[in-house]
Amino acid sequence: MKMAFMKVPVVDVHIDNFKEIWPSMLLAVRTASFIALDTELSGLGTRKALLAQSIEDRYKAICNAARTRAVLSLGIASFKELSNKPHECRGQNMRGLFLEIIQSKRPLILHNGLIDLVFLYQCFYANLPDQLMTFTADISEMFPAGVYDTKYTSEVETRFVSSYLEYAYKKCRRENNRLIDASNSHLSIEFCNYQQAFTGYIDYRCCNLPEADRKVTEEETTGICEQFSAYGWCPNGMKCSLSHNTDLIIEEDERHNDKRKKKKVRRKRKHNTLELTDNPTNCTIADNVPPTDMPPSKLLCENTSMEQERMDIGELKQEKSVSDVQLPETMFDKEESKDNRCGVVETEGEFLSNNKKENQSEDQKCTAPKLVEKNKIEKCEGGTHRAGFDAFMTGFIMAYILMWKNSESDSTKMDPWLPDCLNKLYLSGKTLPLQICKSSFSKSSKVHQAKIELLWGNSKV
Fold it and tell me: pLDDT (tens digit, 9 = 90+) per residue, 364-376?
């Protein structure tokens, strides 16, 4: 086994055990290096409104969804870095826990997180402001250490071919496993030792690793669903006859990328050979020319931007709806349940960077399901989304990229983390992200100002 987390514990927190687990949740939040969140929602409204060309109109559509629908489940993954291994009156409820997250002043990590932020603000903080600039000003003060969107980070920093959650997570795991095989600095995960009383609340999610050095055959690659491969979502869902196996998709992408690199090197070698014939004194050594780091893009139709918007919203639908229980209210263009009872899922993780290879047992492996067993619903990291595990995947992506960038820059700590991605949220179909900042043209909302003073006193943000 290459990593120490073949089974990820997802703690089910609900109304019957909330008070019992509350002290552990507070400890996790207050001692975290960063906190990853994910939500499962009762619905998002109509697709047309969520894809409005104007970002202000998109924000208003999301606000309308947040005001009329509910957060059904909130996933929290608290990551704490291990080295080389007065207040608003609040009760024991989700609003109180969210205020603890704000007061911790830790970086907040989300994946495709604009909708998450809007719902979290409305459900657990205050009524949403009418203007987008006011909302972004409030968020920038609520999270002074920064908000990071791992979907945007996966495109800007690691240049992955696709950036949907499961793809980015598994791609980071594969790259991390290669570092382990080479005995290089890598990311290692350790989970808390949960008390015996917690065992009844923990649902373990298996992490299926692909077979070592497994080669993709032509017969397998012909069965990949191109829509799912590019966007992590297919309109046919489980009825699709093609493969939605993310491991297989990544292997195919890497195979094509290797071919592209080899072709580029061959072209460069041929070009340098011609230069050598014409001017032997000014030639370069072709064998030492590094292949480009720019990944290929997946273009599935002529109108790429509109297709990407449509599929990105499909990705949101899949990740933000509670597919584990197959609620009928989670479909688009239908009226959703307004039940405000929120289930809570918590995953506590700790990440340890710059470690060497570890010896671990093989008996904890969970092998990937075969393609012929696609209709089976496995409790593995893909296929069924739940907020707790999705929050863990989001945090793992961030932890890996931070480790990788620190190692690459030969720096022990970036300040701030990933400056090119700080306070930037991914926007479907847009070339530029949404900047989370307080501009000279906007002010924070009055309700936010009152709350933040109660949380932090009169100290400046």
Answer: 333 333 433 444 4
